[in-house]
Automatic annotation (TrEMBL):
Residues 436-501, 502-569 form the Sushi domain. The iron and 2-oxoglutarate dependent 3-hydroxylation of aspartate and asparagine is (R) stereospecific within EGF domains. It comes from Sus scrofa. GO terms for biological process: complement activation, classical pathway; innate immune response; proteolysis. Serum protease that plays an important role in the activation of the complement system via mannose-binding lectin. After activation by auto-catalytic cleavage it cleaves C2 and C4, leading to their activation and to the formation of C3 convertase. This is Complement C1s subcomponent.
């Protein structure tokens, strides 16, 4: 704290904040100030609220009692303080403000006021601290002086620099100064600061080179300026509006007047203040304070470094993090940090080249070489050394490129050490390696190697690639790729493979089809061609055309598809004529009705094969087997009902139309049987076609359909031989009317049915024929299709005025396709 000479104490207001809240403290500390007034000037005794330390022994019990009674004007003093004072205890109050003030007790405010002033609020006390108040008198002054002594004590904790500023003036200013005067002021700022001085008034005697009266400004041994006159001329300098700065933290100001002045000169008035020195600003011709980044702060600065560097312990130099660099490539480049810019100071760099045993490293210094040297001593400052497991090279320094170094070693360590001075660009080394060569490889027929080199040495490798349509083989083992590496003994680690033509192998078997070779029989190598053919009674769904053996080893169509074609059974082919009967009908011959199916379950029934693994039949014929499909005995290719020669099939599942109700009429009397296995199609076992959209044009009234089966004959016995007959389609309304005359109201002809037969009777399907197909010839395709399924008729088969009723298949095409496609 600065001394207080020639000051008259007018009033002292001290606010003591005892608090546990730093925020509370800062709030009061920023408001509070201790003021001392004198000679018309105001000075801050403490900036803000500094560390306040006092002892309660100053406050004796009588004084405390007096204060409590109002004589001392003390407010807010708790009783606990009275007890502690009586016990001789002392307290120290510290804060957490930037200048080190820290609280030590519960929040309280103690206001010391002039003795004799009535008890009042803190605001009233502050209002009382105004100019022209009566001087402080009485015993309270002793207490206040004791507190001031505590304020002047050395504060604890970190301290901010005290502000340095002030005013200088010539003797007697603003009156004229006297002759033969000399006065010197020495101004000092804290470390890291400089002093700025400027003049608000300057009126001195002018003289050549300021020989007579002058103000001289000096900083250390350097004279900053010698000033005189009122305005600058060629031979004298006046300050004008200039500011003057010290070189360091001190500034000497000297005023001198000679023995006479012809005119009244009023002298000068100047003001000064301490300012932070920006050490990061580099004056011309001087070295920067920091190698990389300089950060100025009040009273000083600090340095930091770029990535890849670390700040040296001298706090100014940035040393490169360049140790532990390892190079494992067979060739490469290494250089001093920042090359070709000057390398960093106080650095220790190590570069390690680590190759496999068998290599020999060679070093070539390239471009430029500039390492600090000494004319008399070998590399005392900065040096470059090279160490192998066999020999040491160097140290190297100076400006001459060192010669090529053949190390004959696979491991090399380069060490580069720099001191704290000098600006040199460093060095650059290109390294390479050699080893014992391997024999030149020769590519196999239909293949080539890569890369092709004039010489192959240790760790060199090459790949073998085959031409399109050929594959790599090592013996009989196919290879996806081939690489071989040159070993340190000069041999390759793998024998050369061969390139063998790709063989796609025999084409995949086609169900119900066969392969036809085009190029040559059994030839399956690259670019060979073949096609698939379907067996007799099968047709290809989509003709995929030719397949070619491609380079990837797969048979592929011309469109790039590898999938196999599908051979589907032909349908609707028959060898029969359109003559004969069922009830009183004609015997069928083999091949007449190859779709005919004989079903043995609870009763005998029939069905029609519609694909190689699906059978169409009536729902009422298989209803009792729907939960036990495997019990259904299915026979195909049967001509004589009891013949042992037939194709056996078994059911996997039975699908009854969801709209069918058993024993409640015959609407939706349709079902599908899924076979466990596909049957082989031939002239005696072949599907019937399903009707096309245009099929109804072949099923108009009086169009002829054909029914077949082993049902009851005119004699009342099941037919031994498959029987068939042609039946005309009956007008639908006529058929409906014919059956409305029947006494059974539960059986009616619906739109899902069609009728066939003669009004005179004599031709009809009968018991045992249920589920069989009523087929029609498609005149456009010349194939037979199923138009109806034998469903029901009158009790007496072939009765006049009655007809056979069939499920109308065309109404169920969506249902049939949905079941077949989704099972």
């Amino acid at each position: 704290m600065p001394a207080l000479p020639h000051l008259h104490l007018e009033a002292v207001i001290i606010e003591v904040i005892v608090t546990e809240s730093p925020a509370d403290l800062r709030s009061h500390a920023l408001r509070g100030t201790t003021e001392v007034r004198g000679e018309g000037q105001r000075q801050d005794l403490l900036p803000g609220l500094a560390v306040i330390q006092f002892s309660l022994w100053l406050l004796e019990r009588p004084l405390l009692r007096a204060w409590k009674s109002g004589r001392a004007g003390v407010t807010g003093l708790p009783r606990s303080w009275d007890r502690e004072a009586g016990a001789g205890m002392s307290k120290q109050i510290k804060g957490e403000a930037p200048w080190g003030f820290r609280p030590a007790a519960a929040a309280r405010r103690l206001t010391m006021r002039q003795v004799g002033v009535p008890r009042a609020s803190l605001a009233g006390v502050r209002a009382a601290n105004r100019p022209h108040r009566p001087p402080l008198r009485g015993p309270g002054l002793l207490v206040l002086l004791g507190l001031l002594a505590g304020l002047a004590a050395t504060p604890s904790g970190p301290q901010w620099p005290k502000p340095v500023f002030g005013r200088l003036a010539s003797p007697g200013f603003p009156e004229k100064y006297a002759n033969n005067q000399e006065q010197r002021w020495t101004l000092t700022a804290p470390p890291g600061y400089r002093l700025r001085l400027y003049f608000t008034h300057f009126h001195l005697e002018p003289s050549y080179l300021c020989e007579y009266d002058f103000v001289k400004l000096s900083s250390g041994t350097k004279v900053l300026a010698t000033l005189c006159g009122q305005e600058s001329t060629d031979t004298e300098r006046a300050p004008g509006n200039d500011s003057f700065y010290s070189d360091g933290s001190s500034l000497d100001v000297t005023f001198r007047s000679d023995y006479s002045n012809e005119k009244p000169f009023t002298g000068f008035e100047a003001f000064y203040s301490a300012e932070d020195i920006d050490e990061c600003q580099v004056p011309p011709g001087e070295a920067p304070a920091c190698d990389h980044h300089c950060h100025n702060h009040l009273g000083g600065f600090y340095c930091s470094c770029r990535a890849g560097y670390v700040l040296h312990r001298n706090k100014h130099t940035c040393s490169a993090l360049c140790s532990g660099q390892v190079f494992t490539a067979r060739s490469g480049v290494l250089s001093s940090p920042e090359y070709p810019q000057p390398y960093p100071k106080l650095s220790n760099c190590t570069y390690s080249i680590r190759l496999e045993e068998g290599f020999s490293v060679s070093l070539d210094f390239v471009e430029s070489f500039d390492v600090e040297s000494h004319p008399e001593t070998q590399c005392p400052y900065d040096s470059l050394e090279i160490q192998t497991d066999k020999e040491k090279y160097g140290p190297f320094c100076g400006r001459t490129l060192p010669p090529r170094i053949e190390t004959k070693s696979s491991t090399v360590t380069v060490t580069f050490v720099t001191d704290q001075s000098g600006e040199h660009t460093g060095w650059r080394i290109r390294y390479s390696s050699t080893a014992q060569p391997c024999p030149d490889p020769v590519a196999p027929p239909n293949g080539h190697i890569s890369p092709v080199q004039a010489k192959y040495i240790l760790k060199d490798r090459f790949f073998v690639f085959c031409e399109t349509g050929y594959e790599l083989l090592q013996g009989d083992l196919p290879l996806k790729s081939f690489t071989t590496v040159c070993q340190k003994d000069g041999s390759w680690d793998q024998p050369m493979p061969e390139c063998s033509i790709v063989d796609c192998g025999p084409p995949d078997d086609l169900q119900n089809g066969q392969v036809e070779y085009i190029t040559a029989p059994e030839v399956t190598t690259y670019k060979a061609e073949m096609r698939y053919r379907c067996n007799a009674f099968y047709t290809m769904r989509i003709d995929h055309g030719k397949y070619v053996c491609e380079a990837d080893g797969f048979w592929m169509r011309s469109k790039g598809d590898k999938s196999l074609p599908v051979c589907e059974p032909v349908c609707g082919l028959s060898t029969r004529t359109t003559e004969g009967r069922i009830y009183g009908g004609q015997k069928a011959k083999l091949g007449d009705f190859p779709w005919q199916v004989l079903l043995f379950g609870e009763t005998m029934a029939a069905g029609a094969l519609v694909s190689d693994d699906w059978i169409l039949t009536a729902a009422h014929a298989v209803y009792k087997q729907k939960e036990d499909a495997s019990s259904l005995d299915i026979r195909l290719g049967v001509l004589k009902r009891l013949s042992p020669h037939y194709t056996q099939a078994w059911a996997e599942a039975i699908f009854i139309h969801e709209g069918y109700t058993h024993n409640a009429g015959y609407d939706n009397d349709i079902a599908l049987i899924k076979l466990k296995d596909k049957v082989v199609i031939n002239s005696n076992v072949m599907p019937i076609c399903l009707p096309r959209k245009e099929a109804e044009s072949f099923m108009r009234t009086n169009d002829i359909g054909t029914a077949s089966g082993w049902g009851l004959t005119q004699r009342g016995f099941l037919a031994r031989n498959l029987m068939s007959a042609d039946l005309p389609i009956v007008d639908h309304q006529k058929c409906v009317a014919a059956f409305e005359k029947k006494s059974d109201p539960g059986v009616r002809v619906t739109d899902n049915m069609l009728c066939a037969g003669l009004e005179s009777g004599g031709k009809d399907s009968c018991k045992g024929d249920s589920g069989g197909a009523l087929v029609f010839l498609d005149d456009e395709t010349q194939k037979w299709f199923v138009g109806g399924i034998v469903s029901w008729s009158s009790t007496n088969c072939g009765e006049a005025g009655q007809y056979g009723v069939y499920t109308k298949v065309i109404n169920y095409i969506p249902w049939i396709n949905n079941i077949i496609n989704n099972f």
